[in-house]
């Protein structure tokens, strides 16, 4: 049995929802339905930034990791943490995963912040994920919240966290990339 570790924030944790409705659980179900022998571990913690993720990473790398899904950065963007700092933290996470589990496949989930944010920050923030994916030759989900962000009917009343229907889209975006990795293993 192989392991997929989802390492993220409230989006991964499924904030405000039963665990079974969080997108990592939906991916687990899809894997079972398709006959893949994988266990999904949801290491999502609400409020996590890339810095706090880096801080807690070692604990999660002590076990087996065949595929590592890195879905951090949304809280950095919401807090206006400099894009360079977010990029450095994500790079350190990727480096640690590669060092501890050199055979593991990595999927980086991109984040974006609305273009209504003044200045260059939104563009820099969006670009940092794509640049990291290219530099590290890892699989890439361009924008985890594609089609969900800003859509009232797909979010909880807070307007920020996906509801059960929104989580299904997060699962679909992630599955599209994960499925390619699984095909390569066959």
UniProtKB/TrEMBL annotation:
Residues 6-169 form the SGNH hydrolase-type esterase domain. CDD domains: Lysophospholipase_L1_like. Transmembrane segments: none annotated. SUPFAM superfamilies: SGNH hydrolase (SSF52266). It comes from the Bacteria. Signal peptide: none annotated. PANTHER family: THIOESTERASE 1/PROTEASE 1/LYSOPHOSPHOLIPASE L1 (PTHR30383), THIOESTERASE 1_PROTEASE 1_LYSOPHOSPHOLIPASE L1 (PTHR30383:SF24). This is Arylesterase. It comes from Pontibacter aquaedesilientis. The lineage of its organism: Bacteria, Pseudomonadati, Bacteroidota, Cytophagia, Cytophagales.
């Amino acid at each position: 049995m192989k392991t997929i570790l989802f390492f993220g924030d409230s989006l991964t944790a499924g904030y405000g929802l039963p665990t079974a409705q969080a997108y990592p659980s939906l991916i687990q179900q899809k894997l079972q339905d398709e006959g893949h022998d994988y266990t999904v571990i949801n290491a999502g913690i609400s409020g996590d930034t890339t810095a706090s993720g880096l801080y807690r990473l070692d604990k999660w790398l002590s076990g087996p990791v065949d595929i590592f899904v890195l879905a951090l950065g949304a809280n950095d963007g919401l807090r206006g943490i400099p894009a360079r700092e977010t990029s450095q933290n994500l790079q350190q996470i990727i480096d640690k995963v590669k060092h501890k589990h050199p055979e593991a496949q990595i999927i980086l989930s991109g984040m974006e912040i609305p273009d209504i944010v003044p200045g260059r920050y939104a563009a820099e923030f969006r670009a940092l994920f794509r640049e990291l994916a290219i530099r590290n030759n890892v699989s890439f989900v361009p924008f985890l919240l594609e089609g969900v962000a800003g859509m009232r009917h797909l979010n909880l009343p807070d307007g920020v966290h996906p509801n059960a229907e929104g989580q299904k889209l997060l699962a679909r975006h992630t599955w599209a990339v994960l499925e390619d990795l699984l095909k390569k293993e066959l």
